[in-house]
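Morning!

As promised:
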Amino acid sequence: MSIAKQNQDTDMMASAQESDRLDPLKDYRPRFTLPEGVIYLDGNSLGVLPAGLSDRMSDVIERQWGERLVRGWNDAGWIDLPSQVAGKIAALVGAGANCVTVGDSTSINVFKVLSAALSLRPDRRVILSDRNNFPTDLYVADGLTRLLGQGYELKLATADTMEEAVDETVVAVLLTEVDYRTGERYDMEAMTRHIHGRGALAIWDLCHSAGAFPVHLDAAGADFAIGCGYKYLNGGPGAPAFLYVAERHLNDVAPALSGWMGHDAPFAFTTDYRPADGIGRMKVGTPPILSLSALNIALDAFEGVDMALVRQKSQELCDRFIAEVEHRCPELELVTPRVREQRGSQVSFRHPEGYAIMQALIANGVIGDFRAPDILRFGMTPLYLRHTDIVAAAEILERVLRQKLWDREEYRTRAKVT
Amino acid sequence: MSIAKQNQDTDMMASAQESDRLDPLKDYRPRFTLPEGVIYLDGNSLGVLPAGLSDRMSDVIERQWGERLVRGWNDAGWIDLPSQVAGKIAALVGAGANCVTVGDSTSINVFKVLSAALSLRPDRRVILSDRNNFPTDLYVADGLTRLLGQGYELKLATADTMEEAVDETVVAVLLTEVDYRTGERYDMEAMTRHIHGRGALAIWDLCHSAGAFPVHLDAAGADFAIGCGYKYLNGGPGAPAFLYVAERHLNDVAPALSGWMGHDAPFAFTTDYRPADGIGRMKVGTPPILSLSALNIALDAFEGVDMALVRQKSQELCDRFIAEVEHRCPELELVTPRVREQRGSQVSFRHPEGYAIMQALIANGVIGDFRAPDILRFGMTPLYLRHTDIVAAAEILERVLRQKLWDREEYRTRAKVT
């Protein structure tokens, strides 16, 4: 290594140390359990374990379930747990607490909001989405149109062509605010306004937004939203998802998945379905208390957190990572927008050997992930990442590339889950 | 108390003690955690906590999630957890392991199998069910028909009129094998044969069957089934549900809820949906690892258990409870069939003050539950209940009635969950 480069590297680390010292969020890091020897840049795929969650879950299991047994539904407040969790999430996504509910997977919730949207505009038949949307959104939309037949169809555009694709046939536009591969971000407010101008409904997937930066669903005029509990919200693998319905639609939507928990009086056990008032009608089956409890506990890590500071630090971490990687690894091509407003809380690079590089990087203590066909993806989670982690991660990435540590057969063998 | 009655009571307890001594299932009781001072006759609503589950869940949370983080999907086998759990349940319900999958709530699974059934018989439009079926089955079926329109409808019959109601318009008959209120049981094999004879499909809800007695889905020729993880399977409050598709239909059904986990290659992230081969296509979203892990651990309590012995003891417990209660509490009206083959694993009585009586009973250490309008329900779970528990429970019920312990305002106030 040249002396000039060595000096530059030293400067970069010194700058990161200074940023950590001044970091207004640094006191939140102990709210999370971080394994030794790992720099975790994959909180956008699975959030880390919040500190104390395991003990609190033991209490849920041993005391609430084990001792109270079926009485837990009343005693331990299980029946109100979906509302309790919803309230915490609502605060993070700029929604009235009465507009959010929690339960089921993101995919199921996509189905719920799409079918609810269709029930509001029976005269239109096209669901519009982004070709680069996360596949499950497209698959679920496609499945719904196939189920309905009668001219319903899913049409796809790209970010560039989206605005003009919203025509008078479109009932709802289903967009993920932040692209899961590139990190590119839609302007939710402007796009919602445009969609409304064409007489359609705006459905926002917040999987890569909720907990990552401030979201303002009510203010943006969104009609529906869904999002994931296990990424930036740290609810644990496969945590329950959430769903938002704008207040103006609450009592007009007809739930297609009409289960007993969405009934106006579930314990009357009547034969006829009568939807609950408001957001309650979007609930379906018995709430999954163990996983909901974990999400409920995890969300306490956001207590007192100023999401504007999270956004500020996220952008600094992204900028720093881009600068570090471009300086050290010019063979990686940045695919995330450089302009702060145009991206979420991740940085992605492209490389033809992306899969093997990511496996080698993980083996060397930096966990990001790979998205087909060639994307190395790094998520920034300001509550538990330090500026110095970013520099250290870039150093290791540089070493993986310089020393060709990725060039091994074992790193080319695709795992079941990538 | 008369000396004659006292002697009779002593005899009944002595007989129960002798049955416990000879009980071939007595060694399974330590597989469960039972709170002190409680006789739990509500395992048909929420199963008890299996011993060791809490520690094993701590390992899932701390080691699999906390330390392995996103690597747990491969390392800890999370991605295969639905299949693993499905294999254990398949063995309990007489199904090929490749015909069962696990995930989502029972209500969501009702929607999945109903829509799958409709996809097999596009020429018929009527879903038939039992007016006394558990309401969520009816609500979900109704919601699906409203979503589809085009003449689809839900028709209801009763056990008495069910056979003749299966006419040439019926695409699928959705029945819960055991009535949640009365405990009355359909003859699955005979009814399935009859349904097939009329060209319709048979969907069985096993919420009150799986884990309660031997079920033979394949042998009975069932087309589809669903069931609950949190009752007799002891998977914890709101545990994931399961779903069965007969092998002959596996590759013909079109999933209406077509999420990424049901895709043939979920990690190829392609735009187009292509259903997985076989039962995999019935999966939808990201599997709920924490609650699936709890269910997985809970199912180990069935390892080595002979379900025929479970059925035998269940019937003995039911008979004993009926005899005890009828002897002690003649004002309670039995609503469960006396004939063993015609009932599941519960005993229900009717009383106009049923709600208050059940609250008083619970306050006195016997947990059963109440079902509107007037049913006192008692579930029999042979792996952890003793014959002497049944006698003791009946004694306490007698005391509640004789001393009118139920006649208090607090016991009449309905809780949110009954």
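Residues 77-302 of chain A form a domain with the Aspartate Aminotransferase; domain 2 fold (CATH 3.40.640.10).

Hope this helps with the figure draft.
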